[in-house]
Backbone:
């Protein structure tokens, strides 16, 4: 499985100007070569020696490859356009790279001891730049896989590295199933097919921290310190992301401990279902955070050889597992006329475990 690990760079001012120059030169070269291809109406054979640019030859080669795929995309767009009815046809433009970016292939960069090293050209001479990076434990673990290309780009003012990593999926040895219900009060509940239950995360703590962040933001809002508010917001986002990483890790570990082959989750999407069919969908303010947690569970499960299946979320919080009648739970307590009683949060996970599985393995509809 191929994944991308995104890490934040902490370059010095001098390094920033070197990276800026390189990425600017890189997109200039890609756009220039792509324009040549368009003019010739063919993907010409270019060598790094024949191409003039203030870039090392490995990076030039990468730019040539990028230009080829830009040209291919352009040709595909032309072809697709030609198949449309004349009144629907539009002028097809050559895609032009605008965002600063540069790519180094796997032999041209290293990452060790929190330092990312890659070459840039200064006055025709290759120099290695050593930029400190911030890695989470999870990223550190992922980066033990087979490293591919390094892509450096700028996003909302920050320099980030996107590293392609080939990670091996483990063969599944499990047999059992678990249903996992994601919620607000309790971030996640898992029930195994043998009836074991585990609650994950701390919904109340979540709320307290969120409230603290919010009131701090409001205080700052009065002082109109926009940059500080943004920093706070970023910090809050990081904190929540970190929580999702922790919870997903715990869910997958629980699955592993219980010899599970398949994790069942609710299908989350804003397209097919409305807010009525699932309390976690559509315009729900929290839908994104559910989606992210589900995504993390899938990632981590796949790495451990555990399959993830998505089930139809309709009525999972209302159906009685024994008689299949629908009831609304009162507070945390679910009672059915047939005598069945259950903690409401467990009920969702129990029903997810046996709900109809939706085909494919995509998270969205
Ligand atoms: Zn019942």
Residues:
């Amino acid at each position: 499985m191929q994944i991308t690990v995104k890490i934040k760079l902490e370059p010095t001012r001098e390094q920033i100007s070197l990276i800026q120059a390189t990425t600017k030169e890189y997109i200039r070269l890609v756009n220039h070569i792509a324009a040549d291809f368009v003019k010739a109406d063919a993907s010409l054979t270019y060598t790094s020696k024949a191409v003039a640019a203030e870039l090392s030859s490995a990076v030039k080669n990468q730019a040539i490859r990028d230009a080829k795929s830009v040209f291919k995309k352009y040709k595909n767009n032309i072809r697709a356009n030609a198949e449309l009815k004349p009144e629907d046809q539009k002028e097809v433009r050559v895609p032009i790279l605008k965002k600063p970016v540069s790519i180094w292939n796997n032999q041209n960069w290293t990452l060790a001891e929190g330092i990312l090293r890659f070459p840039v050209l200064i006055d025709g001479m290759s120099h290695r730049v050593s930029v400190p990076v911030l890695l989470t434990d999870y990223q550190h673990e992922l980066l033990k896989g087979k490293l591919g290309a390094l892509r450096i780009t700028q996003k909302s003012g920050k320099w980030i590295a996107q590293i392609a990593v080939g990670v091996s999926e483990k063969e599944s040895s499990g047999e059992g199933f678990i249903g996992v219900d994601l919620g607000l009060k309790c971030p996640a509940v898992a029930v195994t097919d043998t009836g074991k239950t585990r609650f994950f995360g701390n919904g109340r703590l979540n709320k307290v921290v969120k409230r603290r962040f919010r009131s701090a933001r409001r205080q700052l809002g009065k002082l109109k310190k926009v940059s500080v508010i943004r920093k706070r917001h970023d910090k809050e986002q990081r904190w929540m992301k970190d929580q999702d990483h922790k919870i997903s890790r715990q869910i997958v570990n629980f699955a592993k401990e219980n010899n599970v082959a398949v994790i069942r989750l609710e299908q989350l999407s804003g397209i097919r279902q409305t807010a009525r069919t699932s309390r976690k969908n559509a315009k729900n303010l929290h839908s994104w955070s559910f989606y992210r947690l589900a995504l993390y569970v899938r990632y981590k499960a796949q790495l451990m050889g555990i399959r993830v299946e998505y089930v139809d979320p309709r009525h999972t919080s209302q159906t009685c597992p024994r008689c299949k009648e629908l009831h609304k739970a009162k507070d945390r307590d679910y009672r059915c006329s047939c005598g069945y009683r259950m903690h409401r949060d467990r009920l969702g996970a129990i029903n997810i475990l046996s709900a109809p599985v939706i085909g494919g393995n995509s998270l969205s509809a």
User: Anything to note?
Assistant: Residues 320, 322-323, 325, 336, 338, 340 surround zinc ion (CB under 6 Å). The longest strand covers residues 125-134. The CA atoms of residues 116 and 131 lie 5 Å apart.
